[in-house]
Amino acid sequence: MADLQEDSCSSGSTTYKQVQAWTDSEIVLPWLRAHPSKWTTFVANRTAEIHHTLGKNIWRHVPSKENPADCASRGMHAPDLINFKMWWNGPEWLQKSESHWPIKTLLQDTDSEIRKSTLCHNTIINDKECNEIHELETRYSSFTKLINVTSYIKRFIAKVTKRNLNCNTFISVSEFNASVEMWIQIVQHKHFLQEVTQLRKKKLIHTNSRLTRLNPFLDQNGILRMVSRLRHADLNYNEKFPIILPDRSHFVRLLLEKIHRETLHGSAQLMLNVINRKFWIIGARNQIRQQIHKCITCYRQRAAVQK
Ligand SMILES: [Zn+2]
Question: What are the sequence ranges of the domains in the chain?
Fold first, then answer.
């Protein structure tokens, strides 16, 4: 993401007088310009490492369309790359004096990303709020509808409190994912309250907990995850540390129904494989069987085969 350049006043030898680093992310730039202690652990760890490696006051903003690294992340055919001057030489202004370099004014609300994430954590620690919002869960019989409605409500609250002025008609992927994450936290808070409370206090969970054998822990976003036996395998984070979800939850039933449709009325084993890429649902096999059993399409298909 960051595009490293030699400064124009470098000596030209292997020893550099100055290094200038560029990023096209308006969100990351304020993170890099402030002290890591200002941010949450996740952001602080990463910005501290970048500061340690490159230095702190060397970061500038480059517009995405003038970022040479952009084509590397987007992908480009080799014949096009040969003639793509920006990749080989950088943007034109970089060969001129510093007065020609673009100047980016920082957004006024530079830490809005951080505050949003803090807000997200706070919404689940209040039992009353958790119970109130839980009523919303049972109003919908579709996972997508539940998440979309939640996203619109969150957007409305953000607008009213002037934290966000997003005027798009449709729900973005990040809004959708944030709502899914919020519901996961709410469901975990309701079904695993004791375990979540203990882990938040950095204490061990009770030995009589049904989650003990899963070695549960809270991730950076406060989501309860288990340590998989495949934690040393070459898998992604979600597969090594799946999110724990309870049985007998309306949210889980909606999730299973969605996965069943997305796998084109897939078998129990297929559904289990898809689920285990991200989740560990307690009693998953039984719940999946129930889901398939009550599916009208699968019922008709079974009847047709029996003839
Ligand atoms: Zn089906």
Answer: 2-100, 111-186
